[in-house]
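Recap quiz, item 2
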Amino acid sequence: MKKKLYDLAHARAGDKGNTTILSLIAYKAEDFALLRDRVTPEAVKKHFAGIIKGDVVRYELPGLGALQFVGQDALGGGVTTSLAIDVHGKSLSAALLEMEIEA
Amino acid sequence: MPETLRIGCGAGFQGDRLEPALVLAERGKLDYLMLECLAERTIALAQLRRLNDPAAGYDSLLERRMTGLLPLIRRNGVRIVTNMGAANPIAGAQAIVALAKRLGLTVRVAALTGDDVLDLLDPNQTVLETGEPLSGIGPLFSANAYLGVEEMLPAMASGADIILTGRVADPSLALAPLAHEFSWTIDDTERFARGTVVGHLLECAGQLTGGYYADPGKKDVPDMARLGFPFADVDPDGNATFSKVEGTGGRINRMTATEQLLYEVTNPNAYLTPDITADFTTVEIQETGPDTIAVSGARGRKRPDTLKVSVGYHAGYIGEGEISYGGENCVARAQLAGEIVAERLRGQFQELRVDILGVTGLHTRPMSGGDFNPYEVRLRVAGRSSDRQKAALIGEEVETLWTNGPAGGGGARKSTQEQIGIVSCLLARDKVKPQVTVFET
């Protein structure tokens, strides 16, 4: 069965230059293993095709039930010169939670 | 030495609300109030203001914030640590002293300078983001090094009521008072790491108490209109308990704190500041009461040898135009409108961004399956030019859609804005010459 990340986790987006930083945090500690298995850097890169143009690196924080994704070349050249309406990519947390995984 | 030190955060960005800092200063029983008001672009914009007027360049809200805060901090013995000095801490300190005199108050302000390093940069040095030399990115007009606790400590020791800095690392605004009051030394990596976590959790103010977090029905936050800002009670080992003033809106719990702990952290194993290389992966967050959390467990390693420098350059002008369409077939009409503008501007801009707000504006496309059929949408066209007049063409073309475009186009708006680009580079710490100047009434 497919589940939206929105139902399993909450998220926050941050930015540094042209890099987006997406935190994904399980609501329930027992869902962390599922998120770690399914929400791979490759899956996130695919979900954000055309948005995150560079590498996606993932950090695991099991103690906090969290995964941290760092996506390079993701903000249209960077906060200060991007032509996008959301130059910081602050709304990208919601985009991540739209991702569906087998659960 | 105090048993615990209470530090509140009364602003998390330049334009933040004024009221929560007043609540903290009045009823928060604070020892220190930090005000973080200086994003990368904010200091570059402040440098531009200073270039136009040598007496300007400090935070444009400094007087408004201080008018309310000065009587409260003098009455309650609260010290303020803030980067509102921006591009001109000296002029900012003088402005605070002048304001205090008008209010009939006494005040002592320590201005920290030395972060302005434009003259120290080598044009051949490497831009961190691109790997290109600095000389290749465009006309530079500002460069500010992120100073840290070591550079701030003399200002802390000056006895000033207000420590006014330019560019310092955001968490250092909390770590400097902790290091000063608890006599932590620069090589005390464990306590510096914990104090940096305190500063990092506080630095965005409302983002710890339910701001940038609420999602109705899913992550509810009470009374957001009166969102209270956080404070931390820190012990001499750097362990901290976070809460907010009773009666204010908002929420602090494990979820809000986890989101903020990880916010903008590009490597949770190695969070770099001028003060420390901090490891956040071992941090523990426990809910210990209503809107109260205890945070411990950060680890630290030696600080970086170099300081990060934020460099501002002229990046031309951005031109934008918007117009709305509603009702049946509105997406198709907005698309047609976008095609018309793109055709009229063809060949004139290196990149033209054409979005249908409501469909493609934020994420270039709906990010999940299903039909999206919005009732109304807004066309947005944006592009950049080194020439202001040319950038303005974009908004002008969108505006002509009133009478030259699809049916029912309404609410056209246009704007042209100067673009300030920011890149980073590194500078040896010993090149920086920090200086403290004290002003008093």
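DSSP finds eleven helices and 18 strands in chain B.
Chain B has a mean pLDDT of 96.
End of item.
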